[in-house]
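Whether sequence alone determines local backbone shape is best considered at the level of individual chains. Part of our work consisted of pairing the sequence of a single chain with a tokenised description of its backbone. This step matters because it turns folding into a mapping between discrete strings. For completeness, the protein is quoted in full, as a sequence line and a line of structure tokens:

_____
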Amino acid sequence: MIICLGEALIDMVRQELPGGGAAFLPLPGGSPCNTAVAIGRLGAPVKFLGRFSRDFFGEILMRRLAENGVGDDLMVRTDQNSTLSFVQLEQGKEPQYVFYTEGTADRSFCAEDLEAKLPGGELPPGTRCILFGSIAMTMEPAASTIESLILSQGRRGGAAPVISFDPNIRPFMIKDREAYVRRFEKWLSAVTIAKISGADFDFIYPGLGLERSLGRVLSLGPTLVVSTLGSDGALALLRKGDTGEILRASAPVVDLPVLDTIGAGDTFHGAFLAWLEIKGKMSRSAVAALSEGELREALFFANKAASLVCSRRGAEPPSLAEVEALKG
């Protein structure tokens, strides 16, 4: 089972109206929430650990997760408002975001919530992976609450579950870049898999370049670093557990018409983890023992899922049957 932590919010997506003017369409979103939906649609067991509003936006989020097989017994309900993210899409450009997060439910995820759902930090039986990241790691108290769980699990060594991290950086949410990078590198010490986009690297290590950035991250603790490169596909570096040698693999995307890129990285991350879970490879030792062929297969599976979501409006991940039917 995979547990997802982080924000679950409403994306208010700008839509042009016939005859002029515009409106904002409320859609369930948030990177870890999108990733949980992707995992669920691909048939892997998944739960979400976090705080949800009882307002009507919170009900939309809860319904979205339930309809896609995401377990709700680790969710906390509250009367605080849901986080809103206003999104503007422009052809050929990255989506632009404005967040409204003050005092909201997911931002307020706290130590008391964590203890209520995971007494003594004990994970539910069958937990093989914890996924975290995105803007939740820039907002308190959620960031410190999630950090405490990640670092405590990381200290368990070989007994720890796979911990997978996607920073999914939104620079305007980070007031002090150097402080964020220091904290980012502390999280990496507990992480098994780091999924980091080229844009994330440009913010974290400006001017360092992709290859040196990948090497830097790998040196800080992760077993596997995966970088998504847009239309250029994905590249991964894996430190082999038996020899310590660095294995390199890449895979292309599938050439489909692109309507928008909302949820592409989230779907890639979810699909990559779902592949590991489905194939019985979801453990720290199994990840470290992946062959080049297996790693390439996992990357291509995730790229196919991401290509499919880009061919649709919004974050609508594909099913397992749709991914398997898509040929490269």
